[in-house]
Amino acid sequence: MKTVAIYPGSFDPVTLGHLSVLKRAAGLFSEVVVVVVHNPSKDPLFSIAERVALFEAAAKDLGANIRFSGLAEGLLVDHAKSLGATAIIKGFRTTADIEYELPMAQVNRDLSAIETVFVPAEPGYGYVSSSLVKEVVRLGGDASGYVSESVLTALRERLSQ
User: Fold this and answer.
1) Is the pTM value of this prediction over 0.90?
2) What residues does the Cytidyltransferase-like domain cover (predicted)?
3) 18 catalytic per annotation
């Protein structure tokens, strides 16, 4: 039986922690669709199309069962249904992430019967966030341990403008 999951997030930018969650999710499902979403509470550095392209480049060696999509508006669960997904993958670093994500998981289930699967961050990435990575690069620090080389290059170029 084919199982499809979506892995949504703003991914601005994608980090090695995100890639770790994706790799593990790809081992659990027949297909994982990374859905780069617009989050109205955030001011992204990169457009949805740019974030999709950066994620595709960073994940190119993770498996043939990974696809990418963007979602600029509308309900995530409606997009998930249109993709044939039966699960939503959410990575978490701390209990604060769970407290934030759990109500959304419950509403998503109520709206669509789509289950959310929580995947913990690997200990080495538990403190890494996209916001932190952007701040490190913005201040001239070395973020090479947190993002792929292609993402680091894009960050440096964008933040130097």
Assistant:
1) yes
2) 6-135
3) yes
Q: How far apart are CA 39 and CA 122, in angstroms?
A: 25
Task: Check whether 93 is labelled as a binding-site residue.
Answer: yes
Q: Whose CA is closest to 155, among 57, 54, 72?
A: 54
Considering the candidates 42, 60, 144, 156, report the single residue annotated as catalytic. Answer: 42
72 CB neighbour count, 10 Å cutoff: 10
pLDDT digits (tens, 9 = 90+) for 44-90: 999 999 999 999 999 999 989 999 999 999 999 999 999 999 999 99
For 159, phi then psi, to 5°, come to -80, -10
The domain segmentation of the chain, as residue ranges, is: 4-159
**Residue 158 among the catalytic residues:** no
Catalytic residue among 51, 130, 134, 148: 130
By CB neighbour count within 10 A (0-12 exposed, 13-18 middle, 19+ buried), where does 119 fall? middle
Active-site entry in 93, 109, 138, 158: 93
